[in-house]
Amino acid sequence: MRKGTGARPKRKSAERAVLEFSLDARRGSFHLQVECAFHSDWTVVFGPSGSGKSTLLRLLAGLDRPIRGRIALNSRTLTDTAIGLHLAPGRRSTALVAQQPALFPHLSVAANVAYGLRGLDHATRAARVEEMLALAGATDLAGRRPQELSGGEAQRVALARALAPAPRLLLLDEPFSALDGVASDALLERLQLWLRKNAVQAVMATHDVTDALATSAEVLLLREGRVIALGPAAQVLAAERERIALRLRTI
Amino acid sequence: MGAGADARTTAGLETGVACRSLLMEMDWQAFALSLRLATVTTAILLAIAVPLAALLVLGRSRWLAALEALATLPMVLPPTVLGFFLLVLLGPRTAVGRGITALLGHPLAFSFNGLVVGSVIYSLPFAVQPLVAGFASVDTALVDAARLLGAGPVRVVTSILVPLARRSLLAAIVLSFLHTIGEFGVVLMLGGDIPGSTRTLSIVLYNQVENFDYAAANRTAAILLGMSVVALALIYSNAQRHGGASKTQERGARRA
Prior knowledge:
The complex is a heterodimer of chains A (about 250) and B (about 260).
Chain A: H1 8-11, E1 19-27, E2 30-38, E3 42-46, H2 53-61, E4 68-73, E5 76-80, E6 85-86, E7 94-97, H3 109-114, H4 122-135, H5 151-163, E8 169-173, H6 181-197, E9 201-206, H7 209-215, E10 218-223, E11 226-232, H8 233-239, H9 241-250
Parallel strand pairs in A: 3-9, 3-10, 7-8, 8-9
Antiparallel strand pairs in A: 1-2, 1-4, 4-5, 5-6, 10-11
Chain B: H1 2-25, H2 28-58, H3 64-76, H4 79-90, H5 95-104, H6 112-136, H7 140-148, H8 153-164, H9 166-182, H10 185-191, H11 201-210, H12 214-255
């Protein structure tokens, strides 16, 4: 299936965002060894907990360094251990919305969203904050403090904050776990539309097969730090049919 | 009743007299010098300790453990030993001392500036340790989030670590200040006993005891004790006000 994806770019337009990486990394006793190229503008990294999804996303975001490896976004090299290159997380045009929203507790919601917007005049920044909060469905939270938000609200604000500086790549690590199904679906739909319009590529990690099926054009199946499969959702997930069928029955 | 009122008046008078004599006979020069030394030292310490503590908490180098040990050394070193080393280092026998003398036109030892150097080194652990503890208690996910949003090390420190560890910052300020007010060994070794220049309150206290002037020693000790109590009361009342508020907020958030 990994070979099959090699043909995919030909069907896509040449200027399509492409994320390529080959990584060898350790985190404690966990060993991640992956080599992939994403051609879809929405890729799902699917796997059970402990399969290395978060580790992969942290590496892509530049928060952790691989032992060996290379990451390129739109042909721009972000990390290359061979030449000792490692761009700082804030210089990779990459945003990460982690499971834990990690809002700055001493700042208001609006100030949280504005944190990544520097060098803009006040009016532009305020407009951008408003736009992002609207996208995340969190407009009426602007004046609140993070301590006053529910888990779902905090995740919406974290999404708005991550997108505010206009990244080229959005990494989502089970970002809507605290939202209920309907709210999560509506937000995902709006988000995907916005990302497409603004030509932002997204990679979402999830262990929820319904999420994987609902949103993805392309799925990377990860287990124990290794790539099991990469390809169209239906195709990849069919390989996991047994496990998925079991899971769906329990849902 | 009349007698009681008389007694009260007498007692009041006596207190008044005692206070007046305390104020009159206080070595104001030494008092002012101690305050000045502590203020200058605390300001310099903050400028050094905040970046140093941030480096110790955020840095990845394996040399950091050695650096932290070095920054803690003055805490366990006898003050007289530290004072002696500095006296030799800043004196005319070493290149450093000669260089500084050439630069300033006078040696650093036996001067106010020399005392500042000694005090900064002596109180360094008391500024660094609370800040390291405070910075380390800030959730690393917040630091990651700030870095992802483009914050460099300076902005991470000023916009995330310092505001979230402001109680540790206050503790560092007060501890540095009080530790400098109370230092004796380093001052005696490095500064000698020059009125207006290096004779601090703790040196005055020592002189008074040496002269068997216990009444004066009592007054000086009372002033030093009073300053410590007031400063500590400041920290704790502030911690209670802020800490109390933030704890209530946390509880509220958990409930929500």
